[in-house]
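Intended use. Records like the one below are meant for learning the mapping from a protein sequence to its folded structure. Do not use them to infer anything beyond what is encoded.
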Amino acid sequence: MTNKLIIASVVTKNCLKEFLLTKYSCELFNKCNWYVSCDSQSAKELQKFENVKILQFDLEDGASDHNSTDKESRDRFLKIILNKFTALETALQENDYCLFLDSDMLFVNQISHNLADFFKTGIDYIVSPHYSRDPINEDKHGFYNVGMFALQNVDHMKQWRYLTENCENFNLYYEQKPFELILSNFNTLNLPINYNIGWWRFNNPRTQNRINQLALVDDKIMFGNLPAVNFHFHTFKAPGGFNPGQFLVDKVMGLLDDSKCEKHQQILEYYGFLSETTF
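Structure written out for the chain above:
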């Protein structure tokens, strides 16, 4: 843990609690510097952290939903997404690489401290497949998840950003399907399945039994024979009034509760604190 992770993220008032849990749990296991694109309300809370560089943006009034039938709602969501590139560009101007994390993560273990070294071998992107075993769904939404990836060259994002800005014109799913398309131009390294463990990896008949692979072994959460690093799910909000990943939240929180690991108990305590906090 001698090297600091350089991390970019996007935060709005609706996901502020989730980001604080992401940041807290990640920093229990890793040393980090953050570049965060955020709205004014989130900026007021995040400015107290010395290791966070704030890049503030204006947030339009109204709901933003990536699956909405309302075009204005989808457009607002896209404008929020585009701040991802701002955070990454700023981070890469000051560092040799950057890891991007969505705001709804929960870490239970350390990220490889050699992450930056992989880029010295000619790797352009470190990426996270969905591992969903659902080819029809991935054909629409993209093979890779854009909630966790790393890159080293700001110029490599130009085509990706262009396709994202014009995703509706090209009938592409926001930044995620364009991400899959542009990666054909680069050398990529896949993160193994114990990273970025999203709820979508457990939600079809071919993958539902995977939930049984999550278990506590010697107070470490294991996913099969690998130690789980981080989970990807909403802990404090239900988009559209329903949280499809709640089953995974319940499973992981139960494992943390059963664990005697001090850091796991600290996560639960902070989770409880955030649950009772109003911003």
